[in-house]
Design goal:
This protein is an alpha+beta fold. Helix content is about 30%, strand content about 40%. It has 1 helix and 4 strands; from the N terminus they run ββββα. A 4-stranded antiparallel sheet has the order 1-4-3-2, with no helix packed on it. Strand 2 and strand 3 form a beta hairpin. The longest helix is centred in the last third of the chain and has 26 residues.
Length: about 90
């Protein structure tokens, strides 16, 4: 699955995973940070983050994929520790 992340902004801090605000989509957010911007009315603080929007029926597949990536990463770390740790 290829994830198409995009930059998004909000005046309120977004949830990392939002599956309730839409009937059809799940919003996944990462790298959430509060930034200060200049506008015509002066300085304001907004949240900037990376967002992925997935149809609800696809989200379970995405979760499994992320889970598997974590397992692969754990296995790779174990292999390095076992075979390359003492070098």
């Amino acid at each position: 699955m290829i994830a198409n992340w995009h930059k998004a902004y909000s005046n309120i801090k977004p949830l990392e995973i939002d599956s309730t605000s839409s009937q059809y989509y799940v919003y996944i957010r990462k790298n959430i940070e509060l930034i200060e911007t200049e506008s015509e009315t002066g300085k304001e603080q907004i949240y900037q983050y990376d967002e992925l929007i997935l149809p609800k029926e696809v989200y379970p597949v995405y979760e499994k994929e992320i889970e598997n990536e974590g397992r692969i990463s754990d296995l790779e770390e174990a292999i390095v520790e076992i075979f390359g740790g003492g070098m």
